[in-house]
Amino acid sequence: MPRCATFVAGVALFLPMSAPSAAASRTYVVVIDKMKFGTVPPSLKAGDAVVWENRDMFRHTATATDGSFDVDLPAGKKGKTVLARTGTFAFSCKYHPGMRGVLRVSK
Ligand SMILES: [Cu+2]
């Protein structure tokens, strides 16, 4: 079956790992595919976690501009960032500066 590359490139999966609850922290997956970060979850809260899933054949990183996180992501691997603080965190890949995004973390 043909795969639509354009569609796949933009996909991010939002997968709460536990049952919905106002207080529970959640884990979201941001897929990196075809040299792009997927869509970042829109309503992150302090205490949530982001799992970065690198589906590319290239090594990437998820590196915060302010140094608050720096996740190494070898080809095909995942890495996790726990969002301890509220704020707006720009991030990019060390190796591919055109790959970038922003995490907005609220209370
Ligand atoms: Cu990269």
Automatic annotation (TrEMBL):
Q: Which SUPFAM superfamilies match?
A: Cupredoxins
- Pfam families (alphabetical): Cupredoxin_1
- Give the top-rank taxon of the lineage listed in the UniProt record for this protein: Bacteria
The answer, when asked if Metal-binding is one of the entry's keywords, is no
* Keyword terms: Signal
Record domain EfeO-type cupredoxin-like: where = 8-103
User: Which N-terminal residues, if any, form the signal peptide?
Assistant: 1-23
User: Has keyword Signal?
Assistant: yes
Please identify the protein, giving its name as recorded. Answer: Cupredoxin domain-containing protein
Give the taxonomic lineage as stored in the record.
Answer: Bacteria, Pseudomonadati, Pseudomonadota, Alphaproteobacteria, Sphingomonadales
